[in-house]
Write a structure and sequence with these properties.
Chain A: This is Hydrogenase maturation factor. Chain A: Keywords: Iron, Metal-binding. Chain A: Belongs to the HypD family. Chain A: InterPro entries: Hyd_form_HypD (IPR002780), HypD_1 (IPR042243), HypD_2_sf (IPR042244). Chain B: This is Hydrogenase expression/formation protein HypE. The complex is a heterodimer of chains A (about 375) and B (about 350). With about 375 residues, chain A is of the alpha/beta class. Chain A contains 15 helices and eleven strands. In chain A, the strands form three sheets. In chain A, strands 2-1-7-8-9 form a five-stranded parallel sheet. The longest helix of chain A has 16 residues. With about 350 residues, chain B is an alpha+beta fold. Chain B folds into two domains: about 150 residues, 2-Layer Sandwich (60s Ribosomal Protein L30, Chain: A); about 160 residues, Alpha-Beta Complex (Phosphoribosyl-aminoimidazole Synthetase, Chain A, domain 2). Helices cover about 35% and strands about 25% of the residues of chain B. Chain B has ten helices and 13 strands. Chain B has a seven-stranded mixed sheet. Chain B has a four-stranded mixed sheet with strand order 1-6-4-5. In chain B, strands 2-3 form a two-stranded antiparallel ribbon. In chain B, a hairpin with a 2-residue loop joins β2 and β3. Chain B is globular, with a radius of gyration of 21 Å. The chains are: A alpha/beta (about 375), B alpha+beta (about 350). At the A-B interface, α1, α2, α3 and α15 of A face α9 and β13 of B.
Chain lengths: ~375, ~350
């Protein structure tokens, strides 16, 4: 399979591992083990799926970052979505992996079992199609995710406005990748030596959104693809920068990511969204200007305004270590709830829900830990 | 006697026990399934014991219900599935499947032509598998009480005296064989639902496996067989490992995958090892018989792409591991709920 097989070639993987080993010898002992944050949940998943941790030297420690949109979804937002479906009779459309995230009123899946009309869609356009199919019902799309999924929401809203589909709305919880990384770097309790930058997000944003990491915090970041070789090559690039005491934004994923990103997507986002003053992140708390809200022109499609939903703020469950795991202060299996009362079939924290969540990945692939 | 017009639909009358129901059964079910037991139109079938006791010393008995959406998909339909599913469950004991029962729960409004196609497909599949559908039942429910058509089948087969198959016989050192590419049915259904905007020509692997099982058992000894339906290879391997109290290690690169299944899985973030199959089995075979059994499978049309994909170990009991192409190992857990496509 093109673009897959060549990035899983064992000989090339071995060569990349050798580069990492060699670069590590140039890193002063006092800095080891290096703490490398892979920002994206897709990377977390790939690291476990391909057992890369077992191949790498002990001097590399991965810290699993906040780039799994489902994992950073606050409990209150799940409750808001359930309220829409249960109390306002709305057909609520969601991406599949948000269905098992627990809120205070259970998960969307629980609400569905109780009788709420909740549907899994693969694209917001499917939700818009449902709105056309049921002109007498209200249809809301639970708009989640980073810059990766925000353009699809934006284009769908533009289409809805163009066609005058008035029974369609959006419960907007889009977030952006830069602010949480800044929040993590500003936290004195967190030590990160370098970053593996997300692949899909960067296809939209381009490279510049990460400049502050190199310029303000003097940390290297390398944007990477999702295959084993992508990750190892990017890791080699990060370690080489650390060894040479450099801090630059580099791009290993040039076959997909350009330096300026996707201008059409950026333009659509610019029209439809504006920065929200503040957004809640599970584990990181409220971060200013880290999320998107609908712009003035598209406010009529805002489900919160249409149905009078106030943003619910809900505390994390007692004992849940998600917050500390997301900050790299705790390994998933060190959480007291891990594998005991928090399991993929009965998740307490969001990191156990999605296959991209660090806890689910630990549980699935290394149950012996 | 053509009583029902071609554009007719099923109504509640067809399940009422009266004339309409009798006509439906006679002109469609009895005619299609065409066997002397069913033609008697009794409330049960009477099966001659003498013939059965000559063929073996135990009955294998299984039941399964089918609720697939869409009813018809590339490579099969709910009727073919309903016959294959139960035939395969029966055959996994090493049994020779003989008789099926068949129960229809129909939502009113179903096009008669659709039901006719599905019934024909059941008849063809039953003949192919060498089983007879000898008794049945029909219910029609109000619109919305079921989704178009549900089918339940139960089946009986005979286990020959010399065949003792079961996960409890699995031993460390045995080889694990899969009868062909994995995940085809799951991926074909995803594609057929048209929700993914992915074009492709994937077909379900839905097929009866009793012929393949006969060929395998003629070639060598087999410890255990299981068809890898819902939950896929992952569920079967985990069930086998935990009931035998052994470890199983699968080699990722040895697992046969249709290129399109691989494509769908890569795009959606789904694991083909967890995806459903409807015509694939997992066999655990003593190492010394594995090459002979594999050769017999490959010589059979239902096993042309069979492969040895792993082995039984005395490692952590109940655990299934997958060794990756670079030497690392990961755990393959029992699937949890449905696989949910990733957000990005």
């Amino acid at each position: 399979m093109k673009f897959v097989d060549e990035f899983r070639d064992p000989a090339a993987v071995k060569a990349a591992l050798a580069q990492i080993e060699s670069a590590l010898t140039q890193v002063p002992a006092s800095r080891k083990p290096l703490q490398i944050m892979e920002v994206c949940g897709g990377h977390t998943h790939a690291i476990f799926k391909f057992a890369l941790g077992q191949l790498l030297p002990d001097d590399i420690e991965f810290v699993h970052g906040p780039g799994c949109p489902v994992c950073v979804l606050p409990r209150g937002r799940i409750d808001d979505a359930i309220t829409l479906a249960e109390e306002h009779g709305v057909i609520l459309c969601s991406y599949g992996d948000a269905l098992r995230v627990p809120g205070d009123k259970g998960s969307l899946q629980d609400a569905k079992s109780r009788g709420a009309d909740i549907r899994v869609v693969y694209s917001p356009l499917d939700a818009l199609a449902l709105a056309r199919e049921y002109p007498n019902k209200q249809v809301a799309f639970f708009a989640l995710g980073f810059e990766t999924t925000a353009p699809a929401t934006a284009l769908t809203l533009k289409q809805a406005a163009l066609d005058g589909v008035e029974n369609f709305s959006v419960l907007c919880h889009h977030i952006t990748i830069g602010p949480p990384l800044r929040a993590i770097l500003d936290d004195p309790g967190i030590r990160i030596d370098g970053f593996i930058g997300p692949g899909h997000v960067s296809m939209i944003t381009g490279e510049q959104v990460y400049d502050f990491i190199a310029e303000d915090y003097a940390k290297p970041l390398v944007i990477a693809g999702f295959e084993p070789l992508d990750l190892l090559q990017a890791l080699a690039m990060v370690v080489k920068q650390i060894a040479a005491a450099e801090a630059r934004v580099e791009n290993q994923y040039r076959r997909a990511v350009t330096s300026v990103g996707n201008r059409i997507a950026q333009q659509a986002m610019g029209e439809v969204f504006m920065p929200a003053p503040e957004s809640d992140w599970r584990g990181l708390g409220a971060i200013p200007e880290s999320g998107l809200m609908l712009s003035e022109a598209f406010r009529p499609y805002d489900a919160e305004a249409r149905f009078g939903i106030g943003r619910t703020s809900v505390a994390e469950p007692e004992g849940c270590g998600c917050a500390r795991v997301l900050r790299g202060q705790l390994k998933p299996h060190q959480c007291p709830l891990f594998g005991t009362i928090c399991k993929p079939q009965m998740p307490v924290g969001a990191l156990m829900v999605s296959s991209e969540g660090a806890c689910a990945a630990y549980y699935q692939y290394r149950a012996g830990v | 006697m053509t009583v029902l017009a071609k554009d007719a639909i099923i109504t509640l009358a067809h399940g009422s026990g009266g004339q309409a129901m009798q006509q439906l059964i006679e002109t469609h079910f009895v005619a299609a399934f065409d066997n002397s037991e069913l033609a008697l139109m009794e409330d049960q079938a009477q099966l001659p014991l003498a013939e059965l006791t000559l063929a073996g010393d135990r009955l294998s008995f299984a039941t399964d219900s089918f609720v697939v959406d869409p009813l018809e998909f590339p490579g099969g339909d709910i009727g073919k599935l309903a016959v294959c599913g139960t035939v395969n469950d029966v055959a996994m004991a090493g049994a020779i499947p003989k008789y099926l029962s068949c129960s229809f729960i129909i939502e009113e409004g179903l096009a008669l032509a659709t039901l006719e196609r599905i019934v024909q497909s059941m008849a063809v599949t039953a003949r192919q598998a060498g089983v007879r559908i000898v008794t049945g039942d029909t219910k029609v429910v109000h619109k919305g009480a079921c989704d178009k058509l549900f089918i339940n089948t139960s089946g009986i087969g005979i286990v020959p005296v010399d065949r003792q198959l079961g996960a409890r016989f699995i031993q460390s050192g045995d080889k694990v064989i899969v009868s062909g590419t994995v995940g085809d049915h799951g991926a074909a259904i995803l594609q057929a639902r048209g929700e993914l905007a992915l074009s492709g020509t994937l077909e379900s692997d839905c097929q009866p496996l009793n012929g393949l099982v006969e060929a395998m058992l003629a070639a060598g000894s087999v410890r255990a067989l299981r068809d890898a339906t819902r939950g896929g290879v992952a569920a079967v391997a985990n069930e086998m490992a935990s009931s035998a109290g052994v470890g199983i290690t699968l080699a990722e690169s040895a697992i046969p995958l249709h290129p399109q299944v691989r494509g769908v899985s890569e795009i959606l973030g789904l694991d083909p090892l967890l995806m459903a199959n409807e015509g694939k089995l997992i066999a655990v075979v003593p190492a010394q018989h594995s090459e002979a059994v594999l050769a017999a499978m490959r010589a059979h049309p239902s096993g042309a792409e069979a492969a040895i994909i792993g082995e039984v170990t005395n490692g952590s009991a109940g655990q299934v591991k997958v060794s990756g192409p670079f030497g690392g190992e990961r755990l393959l857990p029992m699937p949890v709920g449905e696989q949910l496509p990733r957000i990005c």
